[in-house]
Here is the input.
Amino acid sequence: MLLFLLRRIGVMFVTALCLTLVVFYLTNLPAKLETLAKTQAGSRMTDEEVARWIDRNGYGSPVLVRYGEWLGVLPGWVREADDGTVTGRCVALRDDPAAAGTRCGLLQGEWGFSTRFRDEVASVIGARLGATGLLMMWVLIVMVPMALLVGVLAGMREGSRTDRTLSTFAIATTATPEYVSGVLFIALLASSTVGLSPLLVSWGWIDGPVLFQGNARSALDTITLSNFTLPVLTIALYGMGYVARITRASMTEVMTQQYIRTARLKGVSFANIVLKHALRNALIAPFTVIMLQIPWLLNGVVISEVLFSYPGFGWTLYEAAVNNDIELLLASSVVAVIVVLVTQLMSDIGYVYLNPRIRIS
Here is the structure.
């Protein structure tokens, strides 16, 4: 196991290095740098002024050199103006220019400065990642039990009416995009003029104008049933169908195995067959899918967070992309890559504990 972990960590390191290099190259294309220059210094800049701004702010070096500076393995760029003013990557990231070192990248804990939020990238990412973490936690709490229940009930008796009904429901949830289900939920449950809320108000069942809030920004201060239900339900329903379908297929396959038939012939009750013999083996494939939902939730909640005005990681990624915030985009890519690789490692380790027949060579 130890040798396996060391090999996987080595592969993860190389993979992260390659992916971040690709993202760094794409975010530092000449067109992107020109857009950044005109956004920061003025849209009416001439080509010569753009070139001077790019060189003055350290973007004129070769891509691999700037990538090394960003990682922190190469000294950061330094420029000295005619009046003696010294600027540079490390000077810009440190409050005290005299204490600025020569290297200031990821290895030194320096993530850069966000041009969109006018703050250090580490602070922006940390706050937004915590907000999305809360959203992910509640989505998984709702999604995973519901998906497993639907999948197991559908797969226990293949071809039955229950199987067809639950399978249709799972397909419908997966086939409905988040921006469609989110808008429908807002119209039906968070509107004071249409949907269910006006009817409940007229009956005197609710005190406020709406049953649920269509804006989740207040959840950053206090999470309530009113402001967090719709974003959680929107994301959970979309991811639930896929997990339920995988669970159903795995359960159906397990129920046709020879040891299940033997247990039936021995007179074991159907409930014990499902719970003691079939369920554990049927959860191996869904376990991988559930682990894959974690990086999907981290990066795939962009639509839901923007729709419900919830300033989490996805919303920040959207803001960084729209405003061409290169440093924030790079930091977000690093976080996303790390989450994907770590969840894959956890998935491989979990295989061994779910099925003792699986061994690591």
